[in-house]
């Protein structure tokens, strides 16, 4: 299934790595991917993928094959995240919460309220306490209009 064919160019396919009705804490252990189509600020269910394999390559291939624009997940290994982003899927890691709450936060561009404890928007968990802050420029959304973590919340 390729998700973007025949769709409005403003349409985005949002992929959530889930465990039951919440985001999985760790992407590599998420048994399901839930897909949502975002068009004109409306979010509609777009599908469901079961991930029986724990192989990161299989998981990455499934996300790329479905044409996901964004992946929202909990913890994710850097190699998997880099591979997805090189394939054109923007990864929003270190997010936790119930699916409906995360979708609402995405829609309102306030995902910073769902960042996992200890991962306040540094892009990589735990780097905020290791002196990276002064050396690294702030990380913003890759493209205008995409969700990003509010810089105000990064310093908390």
List the helices and strands and how they pair.
Blueprint: E1 12-19, E2 22-23, E3 32-39, E4 42-50, H1 56-66, E5 70-72, H2 78-86, E6 90-92, H3 99-107, H4 151-154
Radius of gyration: 15 Å
The low-confidence parts are 1-7, 123-144, 150-156
**What general outline do the C-alpha atoms trace?**
globular
Distance between the termini: 40 Å
What does this structure look like?
It is globular, with a radius of gyration of 15 Å. It contains 4 helices and 6 strands, in the order E-E-E-E-H-E-H-E-H-H. By secondary structure, the protein is of the alpha/beta class. The N and C termini lie far apart (40 Å). Mean pLDDT is 79; it is low at 1-7, 123-144 and 150-156. Strands 1, 2, 3, 4, 5 and 6 form a 6-stranded mixed β-sheet that branches. It has helices spanning 56-66, 78-86, 99-107, 151-154, and strands at residues 12-19, 22-23, 32-39, 42-50, 70-72, 90-92.
Descriptive labels:
156 residues; alpha/beta; six-stranded mixed sheet; 4 helices; 6 strands; disordered N terminus; disordered C terminus
Summarize it:
By secondary structure, the protein is α/β, with parallel strands linked by helices.
């Amino acid at each position: 299934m390729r998700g973007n064919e025949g769709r409005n160019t403003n349409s985005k396919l949002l992929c959530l790595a889930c465990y039951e009705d919440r985001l999985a804490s760790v992407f590599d252990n998420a048994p399901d991917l839930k897909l949502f189509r975002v068009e004109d600020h409306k979010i509609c269910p777009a599908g469901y993928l079961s991930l029986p394999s724990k192989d990161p390559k299989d998981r990455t291939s499934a996300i790329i094959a479905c044409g996901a624009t964004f992946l929202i997940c909990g913890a994710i290994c850097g190699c998997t995240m880099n591979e997805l982003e090189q394939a054109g899927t923007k990864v929003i890691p270190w997010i936790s919460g119930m699916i409906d709450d995360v979708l609402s936060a995405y829609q309102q561009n306030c995902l910073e309220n769902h960042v996992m404890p200890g991962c306040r928007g540094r892009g990589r968990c735990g780097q905020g306490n290791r002196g990276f802050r002064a050396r690294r420029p702030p990380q913003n959304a890759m493209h205008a209009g995409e969700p990003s973590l509010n810089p105000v919340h990064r310093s908390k």
